[in-house]
Amino acid sequence: MLHEQILEDADILSVFFEECNVAYLITDESLCIRRIYDPARLLSPVSVLVEGANLLQLAPELFGNEQILTDISNGKEKRIQIDLVNRVDENGDTHYLRILLRPRFLKGDSIAGGLMCLIEDVTDVGRIQQGLMQSRNELLLLRDALDAKNRELTASNLELRKQIEMNTSFVSIAAHELRTPLAIIRGYADMLLDEALGGLVEPQREGLTILRESADRLLEIVTNLLDLARLEAGRIELVMQPLDLGALVQATAREFRPLFQNANQQLTVIIAPDLPAALCDETRAFQILGNLLSNASKYTPRDGQIDLRVDLMQESGEIQVSVHDNGIGIPADEQARMGDLFFRARTADMISTYGVGMGLNITRSLVQLHGGRFWFESEEGNGSTFYATFLLANPTES
Ligand code: ADP
Predict the structure, then answer these.
(1) Which helix (H) or strand (E) holds 116?
(2) Assessment of whether the complete model's pTM goes beyond 0.85
């Protein structure tokens, strides 16, 4: 009786199911289909479902779940749900179903077992989920490819770093080894020019002067190469200490004065009064100033004017050194490349001065290493001003 009752209830539900595009099957305890309601042929789009067929034949996705199906049929388990079961219709379109299996009898009834199988068309959700899954898989593939590329890049970087280190240490060793014999050559040239080893006739003096100048240039190149290699390897260590930058600027100007005198250039030094101490490495600060002064002299014609200034910049809390000249200047279209390694402006080439384009690059790096800023202003034919700033030893003093 109760069995019939259930079937009647199912008939009532059929109307509702049809509207919702839902199908159902009822099986007996041996999973044999006893009743089918599937007007849209959701479960078996290409062949007609027949009563008496086995549920597993119609839904092979359930294979392997026989035990749980039996348990549901016996009321030991409540339900099983299988999502995204796909079926291809006569047109070749894929549909997605959700299959829910419950015991056939109502709770508390003790009639023979069997299953109630609800089939719901979830094609819209299924397609979205499939699309998401595909995107996710594509993303995973992309991530793998990216990982592989990253590994390749890390390996190349390592190789490159090794190469750079090798080159750097080669340049360091070569420059270091060249420096000593060059210094000796220069020392002997000095001694000979001072006639410490005997009197000289004029052609000998001229020859020795050229020899000493060439040794000086070579020493400058070698020293610059050594600095570049150290900077590149991050091996320049500054000994930072509070320093009277005004006094250092005066001392540097004194040292370079012969250079300006030889070219009949006027060097004016203006140091702001009561300058607080700057935080500097004295040797490297001297090198920065020296490079800017020698460039100012080199790229300014005879009788030119060079102004060396030291000012306290209240706003930024820095000490600013500037070297202004009224020399050849730098063409506007080349200014962006200034400071690039080995770059020389065409104005420098035009006056055929000697140079290799390393000094400015080193100077800028040294200023930045001090925590300062480095820049310039220039107009072709109208001179240049180079600026370097240094931090205050005690920033609260500014
Ligand atoms: P070098 O003087 O050996 O060429 P630097 O690195 O010191 O190398 O300078 C790079 C280039 O910058 C110079 O060749 C020159 O073209 C330009 N330059 C530097 N200082 C000045 C200056 N005061 N006036 C004009 N040009 C300058």
Answers:
(1) strand 115-121
(2) no
